[in-house]
Design brief:
The chain is an alpha/beta fold and 416 residues long. Helix content is 46%, strand content 19%. It has a 5-stranded mixed β-sheet with strand order 3-2-1-4-10.
Length: 416
């Protein structure tokens, strides 16, 4: 059997492949999906990739699978570890953070102002895959970014650097990192003037840098033996999909629950009236990541969020499973009905907590989501909005969102 494209998602715990056919026709087709435990920590990503392909073949009753192109996203090998360094937190540092998160980066440290000795020590300990330097609006303050770049060079790291600050510093940056052994990417300023964000050029460069890095990460060295297309960070791929879907259906939220983390991606555009009262600019597409909400690596933290006694009671009276026994057998991918029930409950909790935090963290999106939730409770929203949505409202939103997604898929299928 031969397909046009095989898309692999190499996660921290699970590798999933999706096959597509007839992409050049008027009726493109999703063929099948397979999955297997990720094998990066075993030293060779190909084991998990081939296992996922074999699982797909088994499900479809075929002997083997060929493809014209394999594309991949990855959050394995630690994902894309980044540190971000700006001038003022609510301005250049925040803009650089939004660019890094939107590209799929995992931010391990954010600093503002001149780097101190403790900051430099922390950067060395983190040993990031990528360093992002910003600072100063165009033709504004220059010295902080230059100083930080010189300090970062003095560390002797081989980590690539992205400079996305004041454009007057670009030539200085080239001179600072010349012959340093650190590859320098120069992009447009992420905060070119007050209250203006310009994160998309930086996001693109970060994803390009990720592709260069990931093929050299431990366990990923042979990924090119199977993947012949682009490799981008999984969160970045989800964000790109969300932006494409936004063009079709308007404002939306995408919740990606994984084995280690839960990401929430929101794509919304405020009205002019709302934009005028914002205290700081917000990007149209925004991602938040919850590093403690995962259904495998961080399953015990999710259980703690639910409350162990409450979960035990639910398992006994509602799910009808033995919690201790199920936790003991559950490894990466749920393999029986009891494990599926447990993972579904953990997923529900991770989703609720991640959406609550996302809405709390982003005032712009809080207003949008609460409007949606109030429509579910009371019909058209005509009353003043509460400051925060309740968990019950979030839960109703999630249930309605699933129904809406099914409706959209049915409508799309009819239109093909």
């Amino acid at each position: 059997m031969k397909v046009d494209v095989l898309v692999a998602e190499i996660g921290s715990t699970t590798t999933v492949v999706n096959a597509f056919t007839d992409l050049d026709s008027d009726r493109p087709c999703f063929f099948a999906q397979g999955q297997a435990p990720t094998s990066v920590l075993d030293g060779d990503v190909r084991i998990g990739l081939q296992g996922a392909v074999d699982d797909l073949c088994k499900k479809m009753g075929i002997d083997h699978l060929e493809y014209d192109q394999m594309l991949a996203t990855s959050s394995a090998a630690g994902g894309l570890k980044m540190t971000v360094h700006g001038l003022v937190y609510d301005m250049t540092a925040k803009a650089a953070k939004e660019a890094a998160l939107g590209a799929g980066g995992i931010i391990h440290d954010i600093t503002v102002g001149r780097l101190r000795r403790t900051d430099l020590k922390r950067i060395k300990e983190i040993n990031p895959n990528l360093i992002l330097i910003a600072g100063g609006v165009d033709y504004g303050e220059r010295d902080t970014a230059i100083y930080n770049a010189e300090m970062i060079r003095s560390l002797g790291l081989k980590t690539p650097v992205v400079y996305a600050g004041n454009i007057e510093n670009q030539e200085e940056m080239k001179l600072i990192f010349e012959d340093s052994g650190q590859y320098l990417y120069i992009v447009d300023n992420v905060y070119p003037k007050i209250d203006t964000l310009n994160v998309e050029p930086c996001r693109k460069v970060i994803q390009d840098a990720f592709e260069d890095h990931i093929t050299h990460a431990p366990g990923m060295e042979h990924v090119r033996d199977m993947v012949n297309g682009p490799i981008i960070p999984t969160p970045g791929a989800v964000m790109e999909c969300a932006k494409v879907l936004y063009d079709c259906i308007g404002d939306l939220m995408v919740i990606d629950v994984g084995g280690a983390t839960t990401d929430v991606h929101a794509v919304t555009e405020d009205s002019d009236a709302v934009a005028r009262i914002l205290t700081a600019p917000e990007p149209k597409a925004k991602r938040t990541v919850e590093g403690d909400l995962g259904v495998y690596v961080n399953r015990m933290k999710v259980i703690e969020s639910i409350g162990e006694e409450k979960l035990r009671e639910e398992c006994e009276n509602k799910l009808h499973i033995d919690l201790d026994k199920t936790l003991e057998t559950y490894v990466a991918i749920p393999k029986n009905e009891d494990e599926i029930k447990l993972v579904e409950r953990l997923t529900q909790e991770a989703t609720l907590r991640a959406v609550e935090r996302h809405v709390t963290l982003t005032p712009k999106r809080r207003r949008k989501v609460i409007r949606l939730m109030q429509r579910l409770d009371d019909g058209p929203c005509i009353n003043p909005l509460p400051r925060n949505a309740t968990p019950q409202m979030v839960e109703k939103f999630i249930q309605r969102s699933a129904a809406d997604t099914m409706h959209i898929m049915c409508q799309a299928e009819r239109s093909i």
